[in-house]
Amino acid sequence: MMTAASEPHWFTSSYSGGSGTECVEAAFIPTGILIRDSKQQDGPLVEVSGVAWHRFLTASLKR
């Protein structure tokens, strides 16, 4: 469980749409990356390892 002092710093993904309807936020944590829907900040989170995040970004750049 995170304490107030360890709250993650969320940022909007550069891959999010510019219309404000497709915003994905991410936050770096010691064990990897948290991902959430910016419109549902108290909703579910997806946590991935740093290695998985790197592979995802690398694969998406190849498209």
Brief characterization of the structure:
The protein has 63 residues and is α+β, with helices and mostly antiparallel strands. It contains 1 helix and 4 strands.
What structural keywords apply?
single chain; 63 residues; alpha+beta; four-stranded antiparallel beta sheet
Strand content: 25-35%
Number of helices: 1
Any low-confidence stretches, pLDDT <50, length ≥5? none
Helices and strands, in order, run as EEEEH
Outline the structure in words.
There is one protein chain. This protein is an alpha+beta fold. It is 19% helix and 27% strand. The protein is built from one helix and four strands; from the N terminus they run ββββα. The protein has one helix at 50-61; strands at residues 11-12, 24-29, 32-37, 46-48. Strands 1-2-3-4 form a four-stranded antiparallel beta sheet. The longest helix is centred in the last third of the chain and has 12 residues, at 50-61. The protein starts with 10 loop residues before the first strand and ends with a helix.
